[in-house]
Design brief:
213 residues, alpha/beta, Rossmann fold, 2 domains, six-stranded parallel sheet, 7 helices
Length: 213
């Protein structure tokens, strides 16, 4: 649930242009206006928009449920089934994309500049799965050239990223949010992991099987 909530947080923050509006307040733009509201940037609702979820595991399903609560239309795509024409059609029909599939030979560089150019110009891309699924240099170029509207990223190919990572060049952009692989790390999730560890140890000493894979 922590990851799912983080995904919606990134989507809302980018859609409502929170980062950019905060910057405009800091520049004293609002204070110079004669009307009550500062309408300096485009703001959008999630309601009525289409979210494409790549991967239909437990996290992807949770994201879909939260998105539906906001009135969004939700579509799922399984990379195991297809990566060709069907995938290109899928990404070209969406307003938002959230990635929830593993990183493997089929998903490495799943999204490059070719796929990004097929997407709507208003699309917001969210990746809380693994860094190598999205080509990081290509995404940086796409945001600089306004090929897509924005991106929220929680993962990178190398973690921690080196100082020359491409994302540092767009970190100050209002349409880009970068968090340090913390989507999973809510206090509730951390406590749950500790409780599970304690339960496993206690079961081991009692000779009982628990959480067998």
């Amino acid at each position: 649930m922590s990851v799912a909530e983080h995904v919606l947080t990134l989507m809302l923050t980018l859609s409502k242009n929170i980062k950019g509006l905060e910057r405009d307040i800091n520049k004293k733009i609002w204070q110079k206006r004669e009307v009550f509201a500062l309408l300096s940037r485009e703001i959008n609702d999630l309601n009525g928009k289409t979210l494409g979820i790549i991967g239909k595991g437990s996290i992807g399903i949770k994201v879909g449920k939260l998105a539906k609560a906001f009135g969004m239309k939700v579509k799922f795509f399984s990379v195991r089934k297809s990566k060709g024409i069907e995938f290109k059609k899928f990404v070209s029909s969406l307003d938002y994309i959230s990635i929830h599939c593993p990183l493997n030979r089929n998903t490495e560089n799943l999204i490059t500049i070719k796929e990004l150019k097929l997407m709507k110009h208003n699309l917001i891309l969210i990746n809380t799965a693994r860094g190598g699924i999205v080509n990081e240099v290509d995404l940086t170029k796409a945001l600089k050239r306004k090929i897509i509207a924005g991106a929220g990223i929680d993962v990178t190919t190398t973690e921690p990223p080196n100082p020359s990572h491409a994302y540092y060049s767009i970190l100050n952009k209002s349409n880009f949010i970068w968090t340090p692989h913390t989507a999973w790390a809510s206090q509730e999730t951390l406590q749950g992991a500790i409780n599970q560890l304690i339960g496993n140890i206690n079961s081991f000493y009692k000779g009982k099987k628990r959480n067998i894979v």
